[in-house]
Design a protein that fits this description.
eleven-stranded antiparallel β-sheet; mainly beta; single chain; 44% strand; seven-stranded antiparallel β-sheet; disordered N terminus
């Protein structure tokens, strides 16, 4: 019988970032384009939060046998169950307490590899090299997707809800880049239709919306970011610190899967117009292209409360170029797209949609991109729970409450 002890090791990580380098229009005072203040210039790592913040790095489990091993012998629960022998994780070396674990007994089972600038965990891995990731939205305050068996940069989700979610800024600095950015199409985000939440992406008749992403090598994020401390001579002190700089590995990556990777794409679509059919939608499509190569998807399955689902498998391009996702209206109808997700084929994603004002959970989308909807009354109390199925949206729970008035 083995007894487990969990131990968390806290170490400083320099994966905490503030903003990513990108060709995004900025204000005319600071420059034409936004640049990273930690990767593109000299910076103070304590002001930007790169140093000085302590985060959990690894959790360890102690594997050992108990003193009482014979199941036939009588035991005293209040006193028995101790380890047969025990070795401490920490040891004093040169008057300092340092980690010196017996690796045959202290085995790590989880390592956190990425944090965002608010301290939220973005990516972790186990000793077998399997990764889990989380995507955050609403100014990095709420998780919008959790993915198993995927790295942070390999998966993307877009519900088109938080582009109007703004908090008051103390300056006019450039906003951080998104993991997958539809900001250039923000004018097309509309409240007329929504699969979940309040908004969806509107594509008028005969038009299309294109969004691209890059391929990166599979082991791109394996190396830990490093800080470079440069010194200079000083007449009074001898040597002083001149500047601190970092490489691009310190910046959080955007959505950029590895080449030749099998991926799964899913999105919901609705057609509105004189030629829309009740049985199936025929005037829209999704294309994935690179160079002269293209792959076309069409929606399939039943139309559920006016929405039909895309689901298709594709393989990313074999080299380090870019791919383009094109959401198209190919007829006379206006087409709405919502809850777009792309992730590795062997991964498992759940996504979440929140209200952009009060941040209440409005919907949770399962592994198949089917939604569970949450409805609230004016006081914010959950009153109804609905589940989207192939036979329609079913109410599975409803609650009513009231206060009795006393005379």
């Amino acid at each position: 019988m083995k007894f487990l002890i969990r131990l968390f090791i806290i170490v400083p990580l320099v994966v905490v970032t503030v903003t990513a380098a990108a060709q995004t229009p900025c204000d005319t005072i600071t420059g034409l384009y936004c640049k990273s203040i930690v990767a593109d210039t000299v910076f103070n790592p304590f002001v930007t939060g790169v140093l000085g913040n302590w985060r959990a790095n690894r959790s360890y489990t102690y594997y050992a046998r108990r003193t009482e091993q014979d199941p036939a012998s009588q035991t005293n629960i209040r006193k028995d169950g101790t380890f047969n022998d025990f070795t401490a994780f920490w040891a004093f070396q040169s008057n300092q307490l340092k980690a010196a674990p017996d690796t045959n007994r202290w085995v790590w089972n989880s390592e956190i590899t990425m944090f965002n600038r608010r301290g939220a965990e973005l990516e972790n891995r186990d000793p077998l090299g399997r990764y889990n990731a989380s995507l955050y939205g609403y100014s990095l305050t709420m998780p919008v997707a959790v993915i198993q068996n995927s790295r942070y940069r390999e998966s993307a989700f877009e519900g088109f809800e938080d582009y109007v979610f703004n908090t008051k800024l103390c300056d006019t600095a450039c906003a951080p880049t998104r993991h997958w950015d539809f900001s250039m199409h923000q004018a097309r985000i509309d409240t007329a239709q929504a699969h979940t939440g309040l908004r969806s992406l509107k594509v008028p008749s005969g038009q299309q919306v294109n969004i691209s992403f890059l391929m990166v090598p599979a082991g791109k994020d394996s190396a830990m970011p490093r800080l470079k401390f440069m010194t200079k001579p000083d007449n009074c002190l001898g040597t002083v610190l001149q500047k601190v700089s970092a490489d691009s590995a310190i910046v959080l990556p955007s959505f950029s899967p590895a080449p030749a990777t099998r991926m799964l794409m899913s999105v919901w679509v609705k057609e509105v117009g004189p030629d829309s059919l009740y049985e199936r939608y025929t005037q829209n499509k999704v294309m994935l292209t690179y160079g002269s190569t293209g792959l076309t998807f069409y929606p399939a399955g039943p139309i559920i409360e006016g929405w039909q689902r895309y689901e298709g498998v594709f393989t990313t391009r074999p080299d380090l170029g870019s791919m383009t996702v094109s959401l198209q209206s190919i007829g006379t109808n206006t087409v709405y797209f919502d809850d777009l997700r792309i992730h590795p084929y062997n991964a498992n994603m759940k996504s979440f949609v929140f209200h952009p004002v009060n941040l209440r959970l409005l919907a949770e989308l399962d592994e198949n991109n089917y939604a569970t909807m949450y409805e609230y009354d004016d006081e914010g109390t959950l009153i109804r729970l609905k589940k989207e199925t192939q036979r329609g949206i079913k109410t599975i729970k409803e609650t009513r409450s009231a206060l009795v008035k006393e005379n």
